[in-house]
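Thread: sanity check for a docking pose with zinc ion

Original post by kr_44:
Hi all, I'm comparing my docking run against an independent structure prediction. Below are the sequence and the ligand SMILES. Could someone generate the full complex and paste the structure tokens? I mainly care about where the ligand ends up relative to the chain.
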Amino acid sequence: MKGWVVFMLQAQGMRLDVVPVTIARQNCSIFWEETTRTAVVIDPGGEVPHILEKIRQNDLKVEMILLTHGHFDHVGGAHDLREILSQKQREVVPVIGPAQADDFLLQGVEEQVKLFGAPDQNLKNVKVDRYLSGGEILEGAGRVFKVIIVTGHTPGHVAFFDEANKTLLAGDTLFAGTIGRTDFPYGNHDLLVREIKTKIFPLGDDIIVLPGHGRPTKIGIEKQSNPFLT
Ligand SMILES: [Zn+2]
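Reply from moderator J.T.:
Ran it for you. Here is the predicted complex with zinc ion included:
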């Protein structure tokens, strides 16, 4: 996600930083609340020193680390980030999500890194503190995130919906002009299309989608023009 987009969202009152991580340039999002300086980190796939620097710059206390799914570019930094933050903040910072069906990916991060030829950034397997099953309400950084299961890209993929701020953290489900890859042995194109249409589209046309890669979009725009969904 380019700097100007983040600036635009910030200008709308959203306290958000996006750190592109790993060779896949995955959007690691950091949301925070101005008054309390509490924060939530979503999909820290790598570049842990860079993420920590943003947290330090803004003087933030991280309340939780959320994961959308088990691919290395989304979760590879979660183990180290939890260790370092928990030590610094003197309490465990929980890693929450995705659904348990992605456990084989969470425990296979080091294998995925070899497979994708990603240069060693010390990305690690991660044991999460809590799996999600859809419908949970998570509170952090003054925000409320509703958990929505959206499978097809991976079997345990979740999205986080912040209704009050009209924002969906979509991971690798819906992108601007495209949808998530499904060419993995566990991927399912038809299922992903169906999941997007039945679980994401009904959230509302004016919802801002922050995807795992590339620029933000809105649900209404994708409903109208996304070639995979029209
Ligand atoms: Zn993915």
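The domain at 3-164 is CATH 3.60.15.10 (Metallo-beta-lactamase; Chain A). Hope that helps with the comparison, let us know if your pose agrees.
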